[in-house]
Amino acid sequence: MASASTSTSQIGYPSDVIRPVPSFTLEIPDGWVAAELPGALVAVGTPADDAGPWANVIIRHERTTRTMTLEAAAKGSWARMLASHPDAELLDERLARAGEVVQYVRETRIPSDEDDDTQQVQSFFFGPTEDRL
Hints:
Elements: E1 33-35, E2 42-45, E3 56-59, H1 70-84, E4 89-98, E5 101-110, E6 118-124
Antiparallel strand pairs: 1-2, 2-3, 4-5, 5-6
Protein backbone atom coordinates (compact mmCIF):
# COMPACT_ATOMS: atom_id res chain seq x y z
CA MET A 1 0.00 0.00 0.00
CA ALA A 2 1.35 3.39 -0.97
CA SER A 3 1.46 6.05 1.74
CA ALA A 4 -0.10 9.44 1.05
CA SER A 5 2.14 12.45 1.32
CA THR A 6 0.70 15.34 3.33
CA SER A 7 2.17 18.79 3.32
CA THR A 8 1.55 21.23 6.14
CA SER A 9 2.04 24.86 6.93
CA GLN A 10 1.90 26.80 10.17
CA ILE A 11 -0.04 29.79 11.40
CA GLY A 12 0.74 31.64 14.59
CA TYR A 13 -1.23 33.32 17.32
CA PRO A 14 -1.49 36.24 17.45
CA SER A 15 -1.19 37.11 13.78
CA ASP A 16 -3.00 39.00 11.03
CA VAL A 17 -5.16 35.92 10.57
CA ILE A 18 -5.73 35.04 14.24
CA ARG A 19 -6.05 38.35 16.01
CA PRO A 20 -5.73 38.64 19.80
CA VAL A 21 -8.37 40.03 22.11
CA PRO A 22 -8.02 43.84 22.35
CA SER A 23 -6.16 44.90 25.48
CA PHE A 24 -8.02 46.66 28.28
CA THR A 25 -7.51 48.02 31.77
CA LEU A 26 -10.02 47.46 34.55
CA GLU A 27 -10.07 49.34 37.84
CA ILE A 28 -11.18 47.13 40.71
CA PRO A 29 -11.86 47.88 44.38
CA ASP A 30 -9.07 47.28 46.91
CA GLY A 31 -9.24 43.73 48.23
CA TRP A 32 -10.76 42.21 45.08
CA VAL A 33 -8.87 39.36 43.42
CA ALA A 34 -8.59 38.09 39.85
CA ALA A 35 -9.39 34.48 38.97
CA GLU A 36 -9.71 32.31 35.90
CA LEU A 37 -13.23 31.25 34.99
CA PRO A 38 -14.24 28.90 32.14
CA GLY A 39 -15.54 30.88 29.17
CA ALA A 40 -14.26 34.19 30.50
CA LEU A 41 -11.17 36.29 29.93
CA VAL A 42 -11.08 37.03 33.65
CA ALA A 43 -13.27 37.20 36.72
CA VAL A 44 -12.52 39.70 39.47
CA GLY A 45 -14.34 40.00 42.74
CA THR A 46 -14.38 39.69 46.48
CA PRO A 47 -12.32 36.78 47.82
CA ALA A 48 -14.21 33.46 47.63
CA ASP A 49 -14.10 32.91 51.39
CA ASP A 50 -16.08 36.09 52.14
CA ALA A 51 -19.44 35.47 53.77
CA GLY A 52 -22.42 36.59 51.71
CA PRO A 53 -22.90 37.02 47.97
CA TRP A 54 -19.93 37.11 45.61
CA ALA A 55 -19.66 40.63 44.20
CA ASN A 56 -17.83 40.27 40.90
CA VAL A 57 -17.15 41.38 37.36
CA ILE A 58 -16.78 38.72 34.67
CA ILE A 59 -15.32 39.77 31.32
CA ARG A 60 -16.13 37.70 28.25
CA HIS A 61 -15.16 38.33 24.64
CA GLU A 62 -17.00 37.38 21.50
CA ARG A 63 -15.91 38.48 18.04
CA THR A 64 -18.85 39.82 16.00
CA THR A 65 -19.51 41.10 12.54
CA ARG A 66 -19.53 44.81 11.85
CA THR A 67 -23.27 44.59 11.16
CA MET A 68 -24.10 43.18 14.63
CA THR A 69 -26.09 45.61 16.77
CA LEU A 70 -26.09 45.87 20.56
CA GLU A 71 -29.78 44.98 20.57
CA ALA A 72 -29.16 41.81 18.50
CA ALA A 73 -26.22 40.79 20.71
CA ALA A 74 -28.32 41.30 23.85
CA LYS A 75 -31.28 39.41 22.36
CA GLY A 76 -29.04 36.43 21.56
CA SER A 77 -27.54 36.53 25.04
CA TRP A 78 -31.01 36.59 26.61
CA ALA A 79 -32.05 33.54 24.55
CA ARG A 80 -28.93 31.69 25.82
CA MET A 81 -29.72 32.79 29.39
CA LEU A 82 -33.28 31.43 29.14
CA ALA A 83 -32.04 28.17 27.63
CA SER A 84 -29.88 27.55 30.72
CA HIS A 85 -32.13 29.30 33.28
CA PRO A 86 -35.79 29.15 32.06
CA ASP A 87 -37.02 30.93 35.19
CA ALA A 88 -34.71 33.96 34.75
CA GLU A 89 -36.53 37.27 35.17
CA LEU A 90 -35.80 40.42 33.19
CA LEU A 91 -35.90 43.35 35.62
CA ASP A 92 -34.69 46.18 33.38
CA GLU A 93 -32.84 46.82 30.13
CA ARG A 94 -31.77 49.96 28.30
CA LEU A 95 -29.12 51.66 26.21
CA ALA A 96 -26.65 53.63 28.32
CA ARG A 97 -23.43 55.54 27.83
CA ALA A 98 -20.23 55.43 29.87
CA GLY A 99 -18.05 58.21 28.53
CA GLU A 100 -17.89 57.57 24.79
CA VAL A 101 -18.90 53.90 25.03
CA VAL A 102 -22.52 53.05 24.20
CA GLN A 103 -23.69 50.00 26.16
CA TYR A 104 -26.74 47.79 26.34
CA VAL A 105 -27.41 47.20 30.05
CA ARG A 106 -29.65 44.47 31.44
CA GLU A 107 -30.62 43.62 35.02
CA THR A 108 -31.79 40.06 35.69
CA ARG A 109 -32.69 37.79 38.58
CA ILE A 110 -32.31 34.01 38.59
CA PRO A 111 -34.54 32.55 41.31
CA SER A 112 -33.15 29.83 43.56
CA ASP A 113 -34.88 27.11 45.56
CA GLU A 114 -32.83 28.35 48.46
CA ASP A 115 -32.97 31.91 49.75
CA ASP A 116 -30.09 33.21 47.60
CA ASP A 117 -31.37 34.34 44.21
CA THR A 118 -28.70 35.50 41.79
CA GLN A 119 -29.06 39.08 40.61
CA GLN A 120 -26.96 40.33 37.70
CA VAL A 121 -26.31 43.54 35.86
CA GLN A 122 -24.94 42.75 32.40
CA SER A 123 -23.34 45.28 30.10
CA PHE A 124 -22.74 44.66 26.40
CA PHE A 125 -20.51 46.90 24.34
CA PHE A 126 -18.31 46.64 21.29
CA GLY A 127 -14.54 46.88 21.20
CA PRO A 128 -12.60 48.64 18.46
CA THR A 129 -14.29 48.57 15.04
CA GLU A 130 -11.17 47.07 13.44
CA ASP A 131 -11.62 44.05 15.73
CA ARG A 132 -14.99 43.23 14.21
CA LEU A 133 -15.25 40.95 11.18
